[in-house]
């Protein structure tokens, strides 16, 4: 038989005292974390910190009783699994924040710093980063959380990989590809200039582009699918593909899925460049087929070849000059801020200007009702532009 430690009256009295204690001294409850408690805690890194052990020559778990004087605490942060969340950092004394052994931010005492994990993912292009907080000794002065905002009033800190580094900066594989890509484009343009000199001078002539009197019997216009034209279309495909990879290298996503243009090895990027070049080539050649079909419906067969030639000629001039300018800016400046609007605006202006120019060219060559001509240009020029902007934005 089990002994009875408390009688029934004593148990009732004890229960009453516990209930009274809970009512008189309620436990404090943390409603949130971060600035003004505006974030719900998703993960606390308090038990995840590591310190460097000189004896083991490796990072070992941090134990407060054994390493009370440690000033630098480190941990791995999984970015890929915590998209759309924020990283919150705070120290009771002034300190410093390192990411992958590079100094990224000075931490002021008592101030919360909120970093968008999405921006970290775009900046470092790694599924995981190694984060170090350097400051006062011990763990009580440091707080690191992954949180979710209760509201959108707090503006996340967008972190760019352009701050002071305490180690030699490694070159991105994109830099290697962009240099090789420029040499490749120089080689293809040199080949065309040497072996197809007349066609090269014609395609890259601004004066010829702006001329409204197109020579229909010209070998470039009368045979749009000739070997010469196909080579220049292929060269334009290389330029467009290079431009896509260049934009992606500035942390501006060309595609919504990160499985496309998201690789980090040189051979992978070269493979994606080849795929993009093939897709661009098929698209440009498919446009001529679309022009033939739509032109047949509107009975405009006589201007199809001129339309295709003028569209190619303008695209070659614009995209070649744009790629050259962007490469010059990228290789001669280090503090340039790249944004989607800055790149989309000149492309949008070009396509609208080309649409108006093609209208003038076709109108001067063919006697056709404005309604038919406008409908034709909308289908083959304006609608693809609208669809492209829809996916880009």
Describe what you observe in this structure.
By secondary structure, the protein is an alpha+beta fold. It folds into two domains: 35-149, Jelly Rolls (Sandwich); 173-392, no CATH class. The chain contains eleven helices and ten strands. It comes from Spirosoma liriopis.
- Largest β-sheet summary: 4 strands, antiparallel
Strand content: 5-15%
Order of neighbouring strands in the sheet with most strands: 1-10-5-8
Structural class: alpha+beta
The helicity comes to 40-55%
Q: Could you say which overall geometry the principal axes of the C-alpha atoms support?
A: elongated
Measured distance between first and last alpha carbons: 77 Å
Mean pLDDT: 79
Series of H and E elements? HEEEEEEEEHEEHHHHHHHHH
Give the tally of β-strands: 10
* Secondary structure tally, helices: 11
Please give the radius of gyration in angstroms: 32 Å
How many separate structural domains?
A: 2
Uncertain spans:
1-6, 16-30
